[in-house]
């Protein structure tokens, strides 16, 4: 700790604090332009000049100067104000000052400081910049005439996003913030640079000229795409969500988002939103009233009883999921209830429940930056949860986390400093982790706590057949590499495993999760800070759905069973809430057959999805922006969302719809509000005990877990392989999440359609050119997709994302971890 | 002491003086008043090439105390310039304060001497950009 005096105030701060930090902690405001709390100090703009008694004679930049013992600092006097005014005058000299047409106006640091310091005329004069404005990419407008050379965009893109799209180019007065070869911007489009730009040099194009900053209402909420649970601020005007607004004080991620969160909000006010209930009359869906539709649904579900089934999206709020489960199990009397095709949540609801006694990750997001070794299962963890990816980047680059990736393809994470990627043959991850566990046992690296756990003896016996040699042969890795990884993992004091889940990853089910938990338990990693396993649920409320038990009851059918049951005729009524199985579940043909066959199909969704088109009744639901509630993110953080706009058309929130049906089928009174439901959750769901609406506050509460670790052996079937065929891996594309992002304009602007990605060797072998049409065929069927060339995949392995309806990949993938396909150039 | 006569006499004096002055009453509409250059009558939008000069900065709707201006911005697909795709003034709510003119950074909106604003229907008081933009 150091003590110093700032403007006659005594301040005590940590040793690594700068003068700026010290002043901020004492509530003294020093103006800044180029400083950002997330980034390394830069000291480029000189706006933050202060006077230090001990260094009289010149002014000192406070954002880069460490606070030292006994410093006497003055943050404002005549000389300082003069210097700051000069800084502004120099910046304004070549600045276009086109505030009337600049979207940053109102939220522009240069404008605000110019006003604050009363710079109304400039004693200097010069020509303005005449850089060409970049209108090429669809999302970010780059007007370097407005740039103040703070370097924040380049620094955030490099330090946190680890993409490195920008750098200063040219020298002197010609210097500008440029891209590679001063060409068009081709990047991840996370929008971080736009967020931190203090002026209007980088602007969101989808939001361009939509509203002035001051005219928008700013509503705090939580992103409704992936499980990371990033907090957002929605910019709302005239009952429309117009943009997301950056707030550097929001969440663990300091307001940073990914493409989906930053630019995927348009689905809320999409023209395609359903606005009235629809009932099938013959072959057409015709508009109906809510009373008619709800009465029909209640009657049909009531009739079907145990022959009713439901697939519910984990995008709903906890309150809605809780109410739905009640309505379905108690009211309708059916246990056929599931979500996410069954496998995309099994890591939590099956493996973690068996192995830990709770359907939740033992670790939290903060552990990522606290661990010594981070073992990521599949490089795709970056694509599925980009903002968790930023945490990994920061962990590796700032905290010295050792990164090991075990994957069937390399990826962005593989390029981080010191990262090592073990590329295994497709589908062999389970064998790989069992082998690692066996190495830990045979090399006597087992933690003293492990032999005391239930199931230890059985696990050791089961693992004895998973020899290094066998493991090496199946995974295609060398025995040395496997032993080295196991030893490294065991030797690191804090080791954390990350495993993404999702509809695109059928292999990431219960068995794989269990083998990871075994590995962590063998080395005594569960329940320790910076250690353990973090399961990364795909959807915003995947963890909540697991907590609330949106899974089949004892005698109920799971997702696959429900689809089969529809075909067999044992399921008479199917209620799809927000799920679009036609596109997202494995085996499209089968799902379509099931939905066509079932006697009564109700679909409750925002859009007339491919699944909704087959429904007998369609109920228009509300998006996350139109309701209150809570989501539980992948680190078990329970966070509140706030209603930002009125429901679109006559749509109703899922809560309202369930409330009515619940009352109709049970005869019980309506719930007064979703807060009442939250109270009930806190009374009946373990882990939520003691939580109240008020306690959640603006940052949410990480719900606790009570763990009772137990080792459960898992058998790894040897992966299949078919000679002469390609191994097709499905998964997530960086700019998309589920099938919802198809309705978000931003993601569709940069990634509009499905594709199939090839590695270098295959590109050469098939002499492919980017964008070539290729036909990919499996035993289930074939689709024609555009080829994407990359350097992430080994020979004979191809990758395709699953989010898209057109040529959907589930027409050929039927739920195996790897689909064997043949590939040919389409005519 | 109450003097009854002197105020009466003073009043009559003024009346008498006015008998010999030019009358102030105008025989409107045959006679027209002279409008001062800073008179605040009906608004108009200055023209710049093919459209109004307004760049849709939203300062006038922001400053307007009567909240009677509606502006919507759009981007010219070719030049990427910002322009007002909609500019409406609801004259029934306008209080003719002139703040809009004062706020405008590009001298787009002005106030004219036109004060003859009576009309037959409410809709006629909604002055659109087309109605407001100078004709030449
Ligand atoms: S959008 Fe993201 S990846 Fe692209 S340049 Fe900006 S910070 Fe970098
Ligand atoms: S573009 Fe914006 S963030 Fe980047 S250097 Fe210029 S002013 Fe700073
Ligand atoms: S999609 Fe996920 S990572 Fe992206 S902003 Fe939303 S919650 Fe964050
Ligand atoms: S004159 Fe005053 S009230 Fe009328 S439009 Fe202008 S700012 Fe509004
Ligand atoms: S202040 Fe001027 S430029 Fe701005 S919106 Fe009003 S008329 Fe248009
Ligand atoms: S904020 Fe300190 S030099 Fe820019």
Fill in the CATH topology of the largest domain in chain A.
Dimethylsulfoxide Reductase, domain 2
Overall mean pLDDT score of chain B? 93
CATH architecture of chain B: 2-Layer Sandwich
The succession of helices and strands of chain B, N to C, reads: HEEEHEEHEEH
SSE layout:
The complex is a heterodimer of chains A (827) and B (136).
Chain A: E1 2-6, E2 9-13, H1 19-25, E3 49-52, E4 60-61, E5 72-74, H2 78-94, H3 109-116, E6 140-142, H4 152-159, E7 167-169, E8 176-178, H5 192-196, E9 202-204, E10 217-222, E11 231-237, E12 240-245, H6 259-263, E13 278-281, E14 284-287, H7 290-304, E15 308-312, H8 318-332, E16 337-338, H9 346-356, E17 373-377, H10 381-384, H11 386-398, E18 402-407, E19 420-423, H12 429-442, H13 456-463, H14 468-475, H15 479-491, E20 495-500, H16 510-522, E21 532-536, H17 542-547, H18 559-568, E22 573-577, H19 581-584, H20 588-597, E23 600-605, E24 617-620, E25 629-632, E26 637-641, H21 654-666, H22 674-684, H23 693-696, E27 701-702, E28 726-731, H24 745-750, E29 755-758, H25 760-765, E30 773-778, E31 781-789, E32 797-801, E33 819-825
Parallel strand pairs in A: 1-5, 15-16, 15-22, 17-18, 17-20, 18-19, 20-21, 22-23, 23-24, 28-32, 29-31
Antiparallel strand pairs in A: 1-2, 3-4, 3-5, 6-9, 7-8, 10-11, 11-12, 13-14, 13-24, 25-26, 26-27, 28-33, 30-31, 30-33
Helix pairs in contact in A: 7-21, 8-21, 8-22, 9-16, 12-14, 12-15, 12-16, 18-20
Chain B: H1 5-19, E1 43-45, E2 47-48, E3 51-52, H2 59-63, E4 69-75, E5 82-90, H3 99-103, E6 109-111, E7 126-127, H4 129-132
Antiparallel strand pairs in B: 1-6, 2-3, 4-5, 5-7
């Amino acid at each position: 700790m150091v003590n110093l005096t700032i403007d006659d105030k005594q301040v005590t701060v940590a040793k690594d604090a700068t003068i700026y930090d010290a002043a901020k902690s004492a509530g003294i405001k020093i103006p800044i332009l180029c400083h950002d709390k997330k980034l390394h100090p830069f000291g480029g703009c000189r706006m933050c000049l202060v006077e230090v008694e001990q260094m009289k004679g010149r002014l000192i930049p406070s954002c880069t100067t460490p606070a030292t013992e006994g410093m006497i600092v003055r943050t404002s006097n005549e000389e300082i104000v003069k210097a700051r005014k000069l800084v502004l005058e120099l910046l304004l000299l070549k600045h276009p000052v086109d505030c009337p047409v600049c979207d940053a106006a109102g939220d522009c640091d240069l404008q605000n400081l110019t006003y604050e310091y009363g710079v109304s005329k400039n004693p200097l004069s010069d020509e303005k910049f005449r850089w060409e404005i970049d209108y090429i990419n669809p999302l970010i407008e780059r007007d370097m005439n407005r740039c103040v050379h703070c370097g924040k965009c380049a620094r955030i893109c490099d330090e946190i996003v680890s993409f490195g799209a920008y750098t200063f180019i040219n020298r002197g007065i010609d210097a500008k913030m440029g891209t590679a070869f001063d060409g068009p911007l081709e990047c991840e489009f996370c929008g971080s640079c736009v967020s931190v730009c203090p002026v209007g040099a980088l602007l969101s194009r989808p939001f361009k000229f939509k509203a002035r900053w001051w005219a928008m209402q700013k509503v705090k909420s939580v992103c409704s795409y992936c499980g990371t649970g990033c907090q957002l601020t929605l910019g709302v005007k005239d009952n429309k969500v117009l943009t997301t607004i950056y707030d550097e004080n929001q969440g663990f991620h300091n307001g940073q988002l990914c493409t989906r969160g930053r630019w995927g909000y348009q689905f809320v006010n999409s023209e395609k939103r359903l606005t009235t209930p629809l009932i099938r009359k013959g072959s057409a869906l015709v508009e109906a009233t809510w009373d008619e539709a709800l009465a029909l649904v209640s009657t049909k579900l009531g009739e079907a009883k145990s022959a009713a089934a439901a697939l519910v999206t984990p995008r709903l709020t906890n309150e809605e999921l809780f109410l739905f489960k009640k309505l379905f199990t108690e009211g309708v009397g059916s246990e056929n209830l599931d979500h996410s095709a069954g496998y995309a949540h099994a890591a939590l609801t099956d493996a973690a429940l068996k192995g830990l006694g709770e359907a939740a990750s033992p670790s939290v997001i903060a552990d990522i930056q606290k661990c010594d070794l981070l073992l990521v299962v599949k490089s795709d963890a970056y694509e599925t949860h980009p903002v968790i990816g930023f945490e990994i980047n920061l962990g590796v680059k700032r905290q010295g986390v050792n990164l090991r990736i075990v994957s069937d393809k390399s990826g962005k994470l593989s390029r981080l400093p010191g990262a090592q990627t073990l590329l295994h043959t497709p589908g062999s991850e389970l064998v790989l982790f069992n082998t690692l566990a066996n190495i830990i046992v045979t090399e006597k690296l087992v933690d003293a706590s492990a032999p005391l756990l239930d199931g230890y003896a059985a696990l050791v016996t089961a693992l004895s057949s998973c020899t290094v040699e066998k493991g090496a042969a199946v995974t295609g890795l060398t025995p040395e590499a496997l032993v080295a990884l196991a030893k490294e993992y065991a030797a690191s004091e804090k080791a954390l495993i990350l495993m993404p889940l999702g509809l695109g990853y059928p292999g990431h089910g219960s068995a794989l999760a269990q083998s990871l938990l075994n590995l962590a338990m063998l080395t005594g990693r569960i329940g320790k800070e910076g250690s353990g396993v973090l399961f990364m649920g795909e959807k915003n409320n995947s963890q909540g759905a697991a907590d609330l038990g949106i899974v089949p009851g004892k005698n109920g059918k799971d997702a696959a069973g429900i689809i089969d049951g529809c075909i067999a005729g044992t399921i008479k009524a199917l209620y799809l809430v927000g799920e679009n199985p036609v596109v997202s579940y494995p085996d499209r043909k089968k799902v379509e057959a099931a939905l066509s066959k079932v006697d009564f199909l109700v679909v409750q969704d925002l859009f007339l999805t491919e699944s909704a088109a087959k429904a007998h009744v369609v109920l228009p639901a509300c998006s996350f922006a139109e309701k209150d509630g809570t989501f539980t993110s992948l680190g078990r953080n329970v966070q509140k969302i706030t209603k930002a706009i009125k429901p679109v058309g006559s749509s109703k929130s899922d809560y309202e719809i369930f409330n009515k049906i619940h009352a109709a089928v049970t005869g019980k009174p309506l719930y007064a509000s979703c807060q009442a439901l939250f109270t009930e959750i806190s009374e009946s769901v373990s882990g939520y005990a003691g939580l109240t609406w008020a306690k959640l506050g603006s940052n949410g509460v990480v719900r606790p877990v009570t763990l009772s670790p137990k080792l459960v052996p898992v058998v790894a079937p040897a992966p299949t392989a078919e000679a002469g065929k390609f191994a097709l891996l499905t998964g997530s594309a960086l700019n998309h999440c589920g099938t919802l992002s198809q309705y978000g304009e931003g993601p569709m602007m940069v990634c509009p359609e499905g594709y199939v990605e090839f590695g270098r060797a295959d590109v050469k072998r098939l002499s492919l050119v980017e964008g070539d049409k290729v036909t990919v065929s499996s035993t289930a069927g074939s689709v024609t997709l555009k080829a994407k060339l990359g350097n992430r995949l080994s020979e004979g392995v191809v990758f395709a994302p699953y989010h898209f309806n057109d040529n959907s990949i589930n027409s050929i993938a039927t739920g195996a971890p790897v689909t064997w396909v043949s590939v040919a150039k389409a005519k | 002491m109450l003097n009854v006569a002197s105020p009466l006499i003073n009043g009559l004096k003024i009346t008498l003086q006015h008998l010999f002055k030019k009358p102030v009453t105008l025989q409107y509409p045959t006679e027209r008043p002279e409008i001062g250059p800073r008179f605040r009558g009906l608004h108009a939008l200055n023209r710049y090439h093919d459209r109004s000069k307004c760049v849709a900065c939203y300062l006038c709707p922001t400053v307007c105390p009567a909240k009677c201006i509606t502006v919507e911005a759009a981007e010219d697909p070719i030049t990427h310039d910002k322009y007002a795709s909609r500019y409406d003034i609801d004259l029934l709510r306008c209080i003719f304060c002139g703040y809009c003119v004062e706020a405008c950074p590009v001298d787009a909106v002005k106030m004219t001497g036109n004060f003859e604003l009576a009309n037959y229907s409410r809709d006629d008081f909604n002055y659109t950009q087309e109605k407001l933009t100078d004709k030449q």
